[in-house]
Specification:
- Helix content is 8%, strand content 46%.
- The chain is built from 1 helix and 11 strands, in the order ββββββαβββββ.
């Protein structure tokens, strides 16, 4: 009888000062294997993530073309990043995609959800750079559409 015990515990805790408008969060992942017979493999996996731990939005232009993603961690506030990933080559060189690339290159942002469910996005200096209201993503230069990525459908 072969006895193998593997315990993997990863904890990721992020805390930032109040000026970044971010709250601490914690994610724990555990993997535990049980007593095994020779040749058997069985790994039990347990994942503990806070309820509503993040939001993922697909970003689209007014034609419904996919331009990228807004990836958010937290339930009412936290950190987020923009990812420019146009679905077609036609959208690689548009002003909106270039702006998303610029936001992506700035790195991590913080966000807060207001009582009216509007999401405000701040840069690392605390300046407002974008906001999401319903299906609208507004920046100082563009108004785009956001769709819950779990419900987004490819165009075409």
């Amino acid at each position: 009888m072969l006895s193998i015990g593997i315990i993997f515990l990863a904890s990721c805790t992020s805390t930032k000062d109040e000026s970044t408008r971010s709250q601490p969060r914690e994610t724990t992942i555990k993997k535990v294997s049980t007593r095994l017979q020779k040749g058997e493999t069985a790994i039990k996996e347990e994942t503990t993530v806070p309820k509503e731990s993040g939001l993922t939005f697909a970003i689209q232009n007014s034609n419904g073309d996919h331009l990228g993603f807004l990836l958010m961690v937290g339930s009412t506030s936290g950190d987020c990043i923009f990812r420019s990933l146009p679905a077609t080559a036609n959208n690689l060189d548009t002003p909106a995609t270039k702006h998303l690339f610029a936001l992506q290159n700035q790195g991590e942002f913080s966000w807060e959800m207001q009582q009216d469910k509007t999401i405000t996005i701040f840069d690392q200096s605390g300046n407002q750079v974008a906001w999401v209201n319903g299906t609208e993503l507004k920046t100082d230069k563009f108004q785009l559409t956001v769709v819950d990525a779990s419900k987004a459908k490819a165009k075409g």
